[in-house]
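Fold this complex.
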Amino acid sequence: MKHNQHTKTNNFFIKQTKSDWLKSLGERRIKNKFNNIFFDPIYFQNNRKNITHNKDGEWAITHKIKIKNSLTANSEALKILNLGVNSITFINPDNSDLNTLLKNIQIDIIRINFEKVFDVDKFITMFHKFCVKNEINSNNLKGFINCKSLTKDKYYKYKKILPNFQFLKIKTTSFKKKSIQKYIDFKNILFVHNINKNMIEEISFLRSFRINIEQSKNISPFIEAIINTRNSNYHKLIETCSKSVTAILGGCDSIIVNSKIRDTLKIQQQLILKYESNLNKVSDSLHGSYLIEEMTNSLLDSEKNNFKLSFENNYWAGPEEIKLKSKYNQKDAEGLSHIKYGVGKPPYLRGPYLTMYCDKKWTIRQYAGFSTAEESNKFYKKNLKAGQSGLSVAFDLPTHRGYDSDHPRVFGDVGKAGVAIDSVEDMEILFNGIDLNNISVSMTMNGAILPIMAFFIVVAKKNGVKLKNLRGTIQNDILKEFMVRNTYIYPPNPSMRIVSDIFKYTSKNMPKFNSISVSGYHMLEAGASADLEIAYTLADGLEYVRTGLKAGLNIDDFAPRLSFFWGVGMNFFTEIAKIRAARYLWTELIQEFNPKNPKSLMLRSHCQTSGWSLIAQEPENNITRTTIEAIGAVFAGTQSLHTNAMDEAISLPTNSSAKIARDTQLYLQKETGICNFIDPLGGSHYLETLTDSLIKNARSYINEIEKVGGMSKAIDLGIPKLKIEKSAIQRQSSIDLNKSLIIGLNCFKTKNNKRIKILDINNELVQKKQIKKITNLKKKRHVNKVTNLLDKLTSCCRNNNENLLSIAIEAAELGATLGEISFACEKVFGRYQAKTIMNTGVYEKKHINNKQFMSARKLSDKFELNNGRRPRILAAKLGQDGHDRGIKIIATCFSDIGFDVDIAPLFGTPEEVAKQAVENDVHIVGISSLAGGHKTLIPKLINSINTYGENKIMIVVGGIIPKKDYNFLYKSGVSQIFGPGTIVSQAALEVLKKLTDGIK
Amino acid sequence: MELSDYLKGIKNNNRYIIAKAISLVESTLKKDKKKASELVDRCLNFSSKSIRIAISGNPGVGKSTFIEALGSYLVDKKLRTAIITIDPSSTISGGSILADKTRMNNLSKNKYAYVRPAANDCELGGINKNTRDTISIFETAGYDVIIIETVGVGQSEIDVHSITDIFLYLTQSENGDILQFIKKGILEICDFIIVNKIDLDLEKSKSLKFLIENNLKLIKSRSQSVFLCSAIKGNYIDDIWSGLKDLFEKNWKKGKIQSIREKQNINWCKQRLKKQIFKKIEDSCTYKKNIKKLENKNLKNPNTFLLEIIEGLKLN
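Structure:
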C-alpha cells in the first residue's frame, strides 16, 4: 500500500458533539460541582461561548521586603532585582530614608509598592519630593500604596501625584461592585487573589473576574495573585509551580509567592515560566477552550461581550519556525479541519478514552534501574510502596548492546546507567516479590530484545503468571536507535526481522502486552523540534505496521498493541499541541490499512519530561521545570508519565530526589483537580492553531520519508539523522546567542554552587559481583544443551525457519546468558557500524556576527600561523555510551570555528581511542561522557595515550560530570571540563587559549 | 625532535613518531618545511617495495567501505597497510571534519593498520601537497600497502594518479546510465574498475560491468580489468587483491613501476611549481589590491581591466 497523500481521510471520521459523547457514555453521568453549578468534564465546539479580555501575557514578579533599616532593605532590593524581580513591595516604609532605600533602584522601570504605611499623607508627600529631587516624573510611576481609609479628597490628591498607582486593595473573593465609591477609578484598585489549588476552576474564575470588570467599567483591572503553600509532604516548588501556572493562564498582572523557599528559586521559577515555557507570549492563551469558556461564562454577570479588543498583535516563533501571534481569536481557529473531532473515538484528537482521567488516572511510571538486580529490586519495591503505579526498567549499556558484564569491551559501563542483567537469574532477582499479575512492567530495550524478552517470559512463567495476563511494554523501537540513540546491535534489516518475530510471538501469546513503544522521546532529547519528533516517530510506527503485515499478521492483531513514547519539553503549549497532533495524524495514517477495530487507530502515550531541559546550575530549578512539563503532559492526555528527578542532569536520582519527582505526579493527581476534566484546554484558539500547524508540518515531513520509500530507506540515506542534528545545532546556536533563554545558564546566572547529594555507583564492584554470578551459572548449567540451542538460534537466523524469540526462551531456560544469545545471532547478522554524516556550516551561519565566535575563529587562524597547521581535535565517545548529540554538535561547531576535527567511531575502548589520537597527531582529545563511565574510562585513556611516547595531547571532557568528580579528573590529567549547557564558541575559545599557552 | 630521532622512530614503526613526522611534512612553517624536506630526503634512501593504490569514485559509491573491506582483508594476512584519506576543508573557516575512521572501524583499531586522515587545505584536487611525502614516510616505516582515498571531485583523479602505482575507480549500478557519470579521462588512466554494491542489484551490476568492458575495448590503449564487488559483504575482495598484486608484480619485474615513479616525480615538481607560483601571486599585495578593485567595479568590458592587472603584476 502506498501512502503518498494523507489528506483524504477526513471523511472517515465523525465529528463529535456533546450529545454524541453523552450517548457513548450510556446511562452514566459524570459531573463536577463548582460555584454551585454542575459542570460536565468536557465541552464541545457547538456550545462554545467566546469571551476574552484585553490583557497581554506578561506579569510582574513581585517580591516583598520588610524594612528594618533603609540600608539593608536597599541592598536586599538590589540583590532581588538582580535575580530578575520587576516589582518590589516595601513593608513599613514610614520611617525610612527614601534616598537610601531607593538608591540605585530604577523605580520608573519596575513596579514599586508600599504596604503598611502608617501615615499615608506624609509618606506620599515625601515620596513625591523624592521624585522631584531625582527628576523622576511621578506621573509615569506604577505601583501600589495601601491606604486603609481613602476619602474623596485624599484620593484626588494622591491620584494627581501618582495617577498610575493603586491605593485600594480588595480581595477578589469579597469584591462587590456596588461597594466601591463611584469616584474611584478602577485602575486605582489592586485586586488580590489567593490562588487555590484547583487549576481549572481558578483559571475560569480569574478570567471571569477580569472580563466582568472590563465589561462594566471599560478598564482592565490589576490582579495580583498571592501564592501560599501549605504544610505538606510535597516539595513546595511543586505547589508554587502548579499555582503559578494557574495564575498565569488565568491572566494575573502580578504574582507574589509567600513560601519558605529560597528567593532565588522562587524568582527563577517565574523566569522559567516566562522564558523557557513561553507563557508570557500569548494573551489569554486559553481563550476559546470549550470548558474554560463555559465555566468563565457561568461566572459572568452579563452575557454580553461588548468590550472591544484594542490589542496590538506581535509575532514570535519557536524552534518549529511556526509564526505565532500574541493574541488568538475565533477567526484564527475558524475552518481548522481537525477541531470538530472529540475524545474516545477516532481520530482521538482530544484523548484516546471517553472518560480519560475521570475513570482512570495516568500511570505513574518512574524509569529506574542501576547497579545490580538486587539493588534495583529494593528500589522498585520502595517506590511501589510510596505510590508509584507501574515499573519501568532501565538497563545498563552493556546489556543494551548485548554484552555480558564480563566482556572486555564493557569495562566502565557495567551497572552505570541502568541495571546489569546477564541471565534469567538476574531477571528473577529483579522482580523478586513483585506481582507481575498486577504490576505492569515497561522495559526500555531495543538491541538485546531477544534475551531480555526471553528472560522476562521465563521469570513470569516461573512465578506462575500466565503469559496472557502479562501487562507492560517493551520498547522494541529499533529504528530510532539508528537515528538517535545508538544502542543497536545488528544492522537494520535483521533488526526489523527480530521486531517482526516479537510481534508474532506477543500477538499470539501475550495479548495484553504492548509489543512496541514507538519513541519520539530520544529525538526530542537529541534536539529534534516538535514537528520532526511527531513525523519521524509516526513514520517509524508506519514502518513497524508494514513489518507486521509482511509477517502475515492482520492489522487488528497487533496495531492495538502499539504504544508511543513522547518527550515533553519546556515549550508548554507546543508540547501539548504535539501529542494531540500526533494522535490525530496516527489515525489518519492507519486508516489507510482499513482496520476493523477502532483501537488499531488509537495512539496511546507514555510521556517523559525532558532530561535535556534540566541543567546543573541551581538543580532545584529543575523541580519547577519538571512540574511545568508534567502539567503539559497531563493537559495533553498522556496514559502514563515519568517525571525526571532534579539531579538527572548530573547523575542517577537519589532517594529524596526520586521522591520529589514522584510527588510531582501525585500532587497533580490528588490536589489540583485536573483529573476531573477531559482535554480542558481543547478549543483554545491558540492551542488549536498550534495543533493545526504541527499536523501540517509533520505531515509534510512524513510524506518526505514516504517518498524515499519509508523509514528504513530514509535511515539508510541518513535523512532523519541529518535533519535532527541540524535542528539540534540550531537550538544550540540560539542558546549560545541568547535567543533562547535558559534561566541560570545563559541569563540570570547565580553564584550558588551548592552541591547536592548524588548517587555514585561503584561499577568495579558491580562488575565483580556480576562476573561471579556468571561464573557460577556457567558451572552449574548443562553445557551441551545450551550449546545446541545457541547453534539452533544461529541457524534459525540464517534460515528464518522459526521464531527467534521462541528459541531464545528455550535457551534462556537452560541458562544461556544475554551475551551468548546475542552473539549467536551476531554470527549471522553481524554488528552494525554507524555511518557518520555531518552537517557543516549550520552553526557558522547563525554566528557570523557573534563577537565570541569570530574571536575564536581568529584565534584558530593565528594558531595555524604560529604552529604550521590548524588546531586539531579528536571528538570521541568512550565505551558503550552512544548518546552522540553533544559530540556531534561540538564537532560541527568546532570545524566551523576552524578546527580540523577528527571523529572517532562510537563504542571505542580507551585503548582504541588512544591509538586514533596518536595516529592523527591531534592537539586535543575531546571526550563526551553522558553515561557515568568517566571515572574509569578517562584515566585509562590518558594512560593509554602515554604509553605511545612523551606526549602533550590535551584532554578536554564534556557532558554529565558531577562537580565532586572534577578534582579526580583534573588529577588524572584532564585539563578542562565543560558541564551541560556550555556555550560552544566560548568553550572553543577557552580550549584554544589553553592550547596556545601550553605550546608556548 | 632531531632528524635522526624522527628517522629512527619511523624505521622502528613507532606510531607516535610517524604521526609527528607526518605533521612535520604537513606544516606550513618555514623552518618545518626545511626540516621536512631533509627528512623526506633521508627517507627516500629507505624506500621499500610497497604498493601505492589510489581509490577514487563519486561520493556515496562506498569508497570508505571498500577500503575497510580491502584493508581488513590485508591486515588479516598480516600485511601492514597504511591509509591516507583526504577530506575537504571549508574555504571559509579553514576547518574540516575528518570522519573517515568512523567508516573504517575495524582498521582504526587494528595494529597492522595506520589510518591517517588529512584535510586538503582548501587546495583543489583530491590530494594535498604533502600526500606524496606522507607516502615516503610510510614506505620508510615498511608498510606493504599504501592506500590513498580521494574526495572524488574536480581534479582529484589526475592528481592522485601522479603519485600512485595503481588506480582503482569505484562505481555502482544504482543509476542506470552511470557510464555518463564516469568522468572523461578516467577510463584512460585507471587500471581497475570496481562495480560496487552488487548486493543491491546483481543483474544490473553485471550488465554495467559488461557495458564498461565494451567501452574499454574502444579505448584499447592498455588492458584494464573490471570487477564486481560488494564491499559491505566482503564479496570478491580476494579476487580484486590478487588482480592488483599480479599487475603490480608484473610491472615491477619489468621495471615499469620504477620508471613511472620517476616520471611522476618530474610531473609532480611541475605541478607543485605551478601551484606555488600561483599562490605567490595570490598572496601579493598588488593582486589583492586589484582583486578588491575588481569586486567594487561595475565592469562593462572586463578585458580592459584584465590587461591593467596583468600589467600591474608584470605578468606580460
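Chain B touches chain A at residues 14-20, 22-23, 26-29, 32, 89-90, 92-99, 101-103, 105, 108-109, 114-117, 119 (CB under 8 Å).
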